[in-house]
Design goal:
The complex is a heterodimer of chains A (527) and B (313).
Chain A lengths: L5 H22 L20 H4 L1 E8 L1 H22 L6 E5 L3 E5 L6 H11 L3 E6 L2 E6 L1 H26 L5 E5 L3 E7 L4 H9 L4 E5 L6 H5 L7 E8 L8 E8 L4 E2 L3 E8 L5 E7 L1 H13 L5 E5 L2 E4 L11 E8 L1 H13 L6 E9 L1 H55 L5 H30 L4 H33 L2 H33 L10
Antiparallel strand pairs in A: 1-7, 1-17, 2-3, 3-5, 4-5, 6-7, 8-11, 8-14, 9-10, 12-13, 13-16, 14-15
Chain B lengths: L15 H21 L3 E2 L1 H4 L1 E7 L6 H10 L6 E5 L1 E9 L13 H11 L10 E8 L1 H29 L2 H25 L2 E2 L1 H31 L5 H33 L2 H43 L4
Parallel strand pairs in B: 1-6
Antiparallel strand pairs in B: 2-4, 2-5, 3-4
Helix pairs in contact in B: 1-6, 1-9, 5-6, 5-7, 6-7, 6-9, 7-8, 7-9, 8-9
Classes of the chains: A alpha+beta (527), B alpha+beta (313).
């Protein structure tokens, strides 16, 4: 105790100083005006449960993307067969990854397979008793699934950006999950609809010759599908659901869009007008030209928005989607169409929405209980351990500074359980100090001089402190691994707190003690 | 100040049979309750949805229940939450509209619209919180929670085994298992909601209790060097007595902050504080009466075997 190394002093003082600077903006509730620009000005990032917002765990139904890919194969196979002048009876998707082609007996299967192998390098072609089968290869399926998730993240990000949320966070989790955090949201319900919507826009022809009544009875022709159009669903009225028999084949999709925006018709009703790109415009013109007089349905996510009669060939690549929209709905529809469709539907696995008032209440309660708890501990330590107790108190206060500083510096989220962690920490951080003080007391009782007692006390307590911190840390790390959201925030504060308490108890208090006692001939320690 | 006499010499070890009996009985009650009543799993584990609403005045729970019954949500659990103005509506998995996630803000908004007229005087009902957990996630969280606790036991078994001796590690882990089942038992008997935050509390208790145990163990190691010729009983007694002042004071400071959390921390933190308060008491007890006596039991067992193995003359 006659000597405290200079380098330790410098490092300790450095840590204290830096942590005070980093924690001040947070403790003062914002960056003060006199704060120099070159100093760190980040405040602690509040978790969703403290600032309010939306936490969503989404599952991307990647199997659907695979299914869609197989469905797309049907059209492509048809082209291949035509090109090779092979006759066929039917082409149909079977299961998730295969397409079955039925061939007349006199068509050589081997030739068909050869043609398919040339055109579809990512699939496996094989013979069946009555034709051939094309199956997506395993690598292709994996690719498709991965692409579906990545694409979904991009699409959702672009939707959110257009919706206008500050600091959104989107992460891929595991194989087919997306974790989405939107802090400080006013209208979570609307944001959720915007995110979760697949937004698959399709143009399909109405099967005018098909028997709608038979279809309603369950007898749908193989190349058709039954979808519904909803009308007049505005406030108060019950929407009318009208069934429509559509050709299954999709003639044009929203993929070829370049723009979508809100417009108004002559009655002031909101509608969404869309513009196709060059290729889309050509296809649209061709489609409308070939089917004048027929009805064409505009289908979004398997819901028919309208099915107008095509009066003439439409050139220029513009179309309108009407559907008795409220202004907000039209606006959101335009966003999702611009951002593009999700490659596969998403479902919500977990949702947590916290309103802004609840968050600020939580902060108030958290701060209040920290102050009360901290005060009680400080009084106890000062009364029970007097001078050394006060040193321990200073250490505990610096502990809190360090935790806040690290949280602010790393921009790790502080959650409500995290605040509880800080409070708990105040109680636990005195532990190491109590161990040391009790040891010093014992050494004094053995008749040692104050300096010798201090040296012995720190030395003997050191191993115990290290052991207990390591074991507690290991449980905190496990908690961090396993926890989600708020609980993880608790683990973070606990880990930082344990590390800083290791520092304050072993080094900081000892240094303070040294500087207080060094120039005196101390007969008695205050404890 | 010094409340605990430094010359104090309580014979902890000789009372270990009583302590084992008390612990054993409480454990038995806990296990029996866990087996028969089980735990009242919260949303995080059981799946479903929870909504927290704030009314301008005291919430008319009876009429809210009736209104929910009319739209087929009669099975919803409605309870006061922290204050008479605040209620918690809990819907189980089966109340959802078929698809996963369908019960989300949509139904939440529907419920808000439904109960707003009940607030009276054009009062506004505020939707403070919505949480939805799908069955799949609920299952995963349960499995993860169990593993987290088991992993922490294993990590401690290994670390203490390396730093001390294996019998110490065993004593430590037995005392931790004891602590965990005590807390689980309490939550089973009271049927308080067992949530993710409570699991976090359980893991924290494990951390706290092992901390306590390690302090005593370290002292046993120290004292056994000094008291080389004395029996293990005397060493354990000495170590426990010498660390008693620390044990009690640290428990006290932690209890002080936990009381602050319990009274002022708000409703969400309430159960967390309860679990921890209980854990601090149980953890302190088990460090003294489960961990070290277990070491002693192994010591006796080892001695008995050594005696048997020794050739008799």
């Amino acid at each position: 105790m006659r000597h405290f190394p200079l380098w330790k002093t410098i490092i300790s003082l450095g840590i204290v100083l830096v942590s005070m600077i980093y924690s001040l903006p947070t403790l003062m509730g914002g960056v003060p005006t006199w704060w120099p620009g070159w100093l760190p000005s980040k405040t602690v990032y509040r978790g969703l449960d403290l600032q309010g917002g939306l936490y969503l765990l989404l599952h991307v139904e990647t199997e659907k993307a695979v299914e869609q890919a197989a469905e797309n194969l049907v059209d492509e196979i048809r082209l291949t067969l035509r090109k090779g002048k092979f006759r066929y009876q039917s082409i149909k998707r079977e299961g998730r990854e295969t397409v079955e082609v039925k061939l007349p007996g006199d068509v050589p299967k081997a030739d068909v397979i050869k043609a398919m192998k040339e055109d579809f390098r990512n699939s496996v072609a094989e013979e069946t008793p009555d034709g051939v089968r094309l199956r997506l290869s395993a690598t292709e399926v994996t690719e498709l699934k991965k692409f579906a998730v990545d694409q979904s993240i991009q699409t959702i990000r672009s939707r959110i950006d257009q919706f206008g949320v500050s600091e959104p966070s989107l992460q891929k989790q595991g194989e087919d999950r997306i974790l989405l955090q939107l802090p400080g949201l006013n209208d979570p319900a609307r944001a959720k609809t915007l995110i979760g919507r697949t937004a698959r826009l399709e143009f399909k022809l109405v099967d005018e010759k098909g028997d709608l009544n038979a279809a309603l009875a369950g007898n749908i022709p193989p190349d058709d599908q039954l979808l519904y159009e909803e009308r007049g669903g505005k406030k108060g009225q019950k929407p009318v659901r009208q069934p429509l028999l559509l050709k299954k084949r999709t003639n044009l999709t929203g993929e070829l869009l370049t723009d979508a925006r809100v417009n108004f018709d002559q009655f002031g009703e909101a509608l969404v007008s869309i513009t196709f790109n060059h290729q889309g415009a050509r296809r649209f013109a061709q489609l409308t030209g070939e089917h004048v007089g027929e009805r064409m349905a505009i289908v979004l996510d398997d819901k028919v928005y309208s099915a107008p009669v095509l009066r003439e060939k439409i050139e220029g690549g513009r179309a309108q989607i009407t559907g008795n929209f409220a202004m907000e709905d039209a606006h959101d529809l335009a966003i999702v169409l611009r951002a593009g469709a999700l490659p596969a539907p998403v479902t919500i696995l977990e949702e947590r929405t916290v309103g802004p008032t609840l968050g600020s209440d939580s902060i108030r309660e958290g701060v209040l209980s920290s102050l009360i708890g901290g005060l009680l501990v400080i009084i106890f330590m000062a009364v029970y351990y007097k001078g050394l107790g006060m040193l321990a108190n200073i250490a505990v206060i610096f502990n809190v500074f360090i935790v806040i500083a690290v949280l602010a510096g790393m921009q790790a989220a502080l959650t409500l359980p995290g605040i509880a962690g800080v409070v708990l920490l105040i109680g636990m951080a005195v532990d190491a100090n109590v161990l040391i003080i009790e040891r010093i007391r014992e050494e004094l009782r053995l008749g040692k001089s104050p300096f010798a007692a201090i040296d012995q006390g720190y030395e003997k307590a050191f191993m115990t402190i290290l052991d207990s911190h390591v074991t507690t840390l290991s449980t905190a790390l496990i908690l961090f691994q396993f926890g989600t959201g708020p609980v993880r925030g608790f683990a973070v504060t606990l880990i930082i707190g344990l590390l800083s308490s290791l520092f304050t108890s072993i080094t900081l208090t000892r240094m303070m003690l040294y500087f207080i006692l060094r120039n005196r001939r101390v007969q008695k320690l205050s404890l | 100040m010094e409340i605990i006499n430094p010359k104090l010499n309580i014979d902890f070890v000789s009372k270990r049979k009583w302590a084992f009996m008390i612990s054993g009985m409480l454990l038995l009650i806990s296990l029996a309750s866990l087996a028969t009543r089980g735990l009242n799993f919260g949303l995080d584990f059981s799946g479903g949805a929870v909504m927290q609403l704030r009314f301008p005045g005291p919430a008319p729970i009876a009429s809210i229940r009736a209104a929910l019954g009319e739209i087929g949500l009669g099975g919803a659990v409605i309870q006061e939450f922290g204050a008479p103005e605040e209620i918690l509506i809990r819907l189980h998995q089966e109340h959802q509209d078929g698809k996963d996630g369908e019960l989300s803000s949509k139904i939440a908004q529907k419920i808000v619209d439904l109960v707003t007229p009940l607030a009276g005087n054009n009062g506004k009902v505020e939707l403070r919180r919505v949480e939805f957990v799908g069955p799949q996630v609920g299952h995963e969280l349960t499995v993860n929670g169990i593993w987290a606790v088991v992993y922490s036991w294993m990590a401690i078994l290994v670390y203490v085994g390396l730093r001390f001796e294996f019998r110490f590690a065993l004593g430590a882990v037995l005392s931790l298992i004891h602590d965990v089942f005590m807390i689980l038992g309490y939550f089973s008997i009271t049927q308080k909601e067992f949530s993710l935050v409570v699991v976090a509390a359980v893991l924290t208790v494990i951390g706290y209790s092992i901390n306590d145990t390690i302090v005593v163990f370290d002292r046993i190691r120290d004292e056994s060097k000094r008291m080389r010729n004395q029996p293990m009983e005397a060493v354990i007694n000495e170590a426990t007595n010498r660390t008693l002042s620390r044990t009690i004071n640290v428990s006290l400071t932690v209890v002080l902050v936990l009381l602050a959390l319990f009274f002022y921390g708000g409703e969400v933190i309430h159960d967390f504080a309860i679990a921890l308060l209980l854990g601090v008491v149980v953890g302190t007890w088990s460090s003294i009466y489960v961990a070290s006596p277990t070491v002693l039991v192994f010591e006796h067992w080892r001695l008995a075997r050594a005696n048997k193995a020794a050739p008799s003359i």
